[in-house]
Amino acid sequence: NEYKSYLRMDLVEGWWQTTSEKLKNRKADLISRTDELLHQTSQTLLTTHTRLTSVVAPTLERAFARQQDLSRKLKESLNLNIKIFILIFLIFGFQRYRDTEAPDISLMFFIVALLAYIIQRISSAAAPPALFYQENDWNSNLLKQCPQLTALYNPPLFWGWNGHIQTMVLGKMGRSINPILPKTRHSYTVEDGATVYYDVFESPFSRAKATLIIIPGIANTSDKLYIKTFVRYALTANFRVVVMNHLGALKGYTITSPRIFGYGHTDDMDKLVTIVRHRYSCEPMILLGFSMGANIITKFLTEKPERQGLFLGAVSVCQGYDIHKSDQYLRGWARLARMYNWAITNGALKSTVNAQGKVLYPIYNKADVSRASCVQDIDNVIMSKMYGFANVAEMYRSWSCSRYLDNLDMPMLFLNAIDDPIISPECLEIPIKVSQTKDKVITVQTQCGGHLGFYTGGWLLPDGFSWLDTAVVQFCDAIFNTAKETESQCSTSTN
Q1: DSSP label of 349
Q2: How many Cα atoms are found within 13 Å in the side-chain-facing hemisphere of 61?
Q3: Which residues are tagged catalytic?
Q4: DSSP E strand boundaries for 341-411
Q5: Which of 289, 195, 179 is nearest to 242 (CA)?
Q6: Rg (CA), the chain
Q7: Residue 180 has what pLDDT?
Q8: Is 479 helix (H, G, I), strand (E, B) or coil?
Q9: CB atoms inside a 10 Å sphere around CB 115
Q10: How far apart are CA 380 and CA 395, in angstroms?
Q11: Which regions in the chain score pLDDT beneath 70?
């Protein structure tokens, strides 16, 4: 009986082992088949997705392009209808005025037509800026932190849609506020004996997180209202601001060598950067240039690319990029450019030269300066000789930042207004091409804003701070925060 029981146990164990082996083999076979089926399914889904993408994406692009085209045509048609409506009202109002003795009726028609025209211009003015940049994580993250660059820009309703008005209001009135800012003035001397003055603005209530170095527009200083309002806004964001006053432009200060500022001369700025870097070595630096100053900072960064590593980023506002093309444009009458040429010649250049005449006129001919009617005349008789160029063409070529832009390899914002009457429309294509080839360059162009205007506000009166102030400070903040995040991630990964 014991033998029989052992025999049964052996048989059961043998059966169990055989069954277990079969189950294991079956399990392995099922897993293998399941993996193969999943692989085939994923390959099929991937192929289907690729085919759908290749078919649907172009269709969606064509649909979007068609929608944009229809929207543009509808807007053009609406604008045309409004203009026709205005013309009919004006003609009818004039006819009523001529045929009847009721000028009040014609006045009513004129007022209605004027209001219709204003509404039409207002409706076409409010639009988000045009953005040009490469699609990548860095730019996407940066723009998320700059809502001002993607939102509608709403200028003052009655006059902000016109670039000429914005430019002239800035030239005559500046900003609507005149902030009183504590500053300390410093100076340094360069190799030719010229004394350059710069002003430092700091908040007394908080420590600065970074230093903004500002180069103003032509013949401008830190006393200009557009500089002061920007400085006031930047201080609220905990930036220290250093403003370089253009050589010869400060009232009451006599130059110490026979030289004034140059459109693309960077030696003075080079020494300022060295001083600021040593004085505030704990804080990072950001460069900002307005108009002529924007050309100077861009040329400074790109003519010697190693300088770019000293800064978190840079911002260029309302520059012309190519001095030769800008000069050609300013000598024509398109968008009243010749009028602005005359204003710059007499208001900025001649006034600076005359104010420093005690030092300059023993060397240069005062009569030649008096006869100058455009910027190129001043450049012929003074500027090119002052900086040792053979002729104006050579000076323009050497001082234009456009010839160095291929060397740009750092975060940078190029900001312009399309209706800027001082900047050639042809030159506005230059930063667009740069932003299409550089992965951290963003070009922003607003429909209106004039030259350094960018006013915001209600129906008539502008706000104290401009759209420009908010947009640039947001961008500088975003650059600082992004750099901090990158530094933190690098330190974490190292640890």
Answers
A1: I
A2: 6
A3: 291, 420, 451
A4: none
A5: 289
A6: 33
A7: 87
A8: helix
A9: 11
A10: 10
A11: 1-13, 15-16, 49-50, 52-126, 488-495
